Description:
This protein is of the alpha+beta class.
Amino acid sequence: KTIQGATRTVLWNSANIYAEDGVTPVATIAMGTDITERKRTERELLTRNEELRTAYEKIARTEEELRQNYEQLTATEEELRSNYETLALQEQAFRESEEKFRSLVETSPDVIWEVDLQGTLRYISPTVKTLMGYSPEEVMGKSLLDIVAEEERPRFLQEITRAISSSGPIPPMQFPAHHRDGHLFTVEIRVARLTGPDGNITGFRGVAVDVTERRKAEDALRESEEKFRALVESSLDGIVITDFSGILLFSNAAAGNIVEAADYLAFIGKKNILEFIAPDFRPAVLRDFSQVME
Length: 294
């Protein structure tokens, strides 16, 4: 929590700092990255995707019910009248559901789109104006490929081709795209197959989200971790990380040299650091562990 009482989500990376003997921990260094907005965005995306899925399923169920009711219109006059009344109610429910679905799509911060098997856009939500600077009318009838940066189009086609030929879930895809004003941003595309009554794929539907800032944060975190790892690996001092029972979780080459272990990586997760401590000093090391845990 912040000092004002707000709750934030922070990704922490930490390591112990040791005394000059390379064994005794004297402090712990930790680096925290605020990922509150990233986690909030992920939760919102999951919620919106679930709402869309529920809306799709509800519309499909309603359409099936309408079809069944039409088939029953060959029954008696009383049955016909009853079926017409039921049909009217169901049509109203369908319209309300369709209106709710359209409202949900058109107010979603994510771009909702649908293409045929040739990749031609059959629908795209108004949010495309925010994402790319174009109105829906300007991009309707164009290829989904047009939103992808030209140098990335071969990879995009390869991914889509793989999606068509496979039967499993389609993983999210990230590609650079050009905004109308010329700036480059990263868009994440999530895709679902559309199938006809015969089970054959008729097109694709999905969402497009600007993940530029998320990618920058992830890249910055990865770069920081790589720099820290390089610093640790190249250190002339021995650096180890253990759990509080003493099991070795990490060791750099310098630590391996101290104990004259060329295959020091084989000790990870198997050796206890106490095995490398002279018996007379083990009680003191255990006391240090206890103090750190407190």
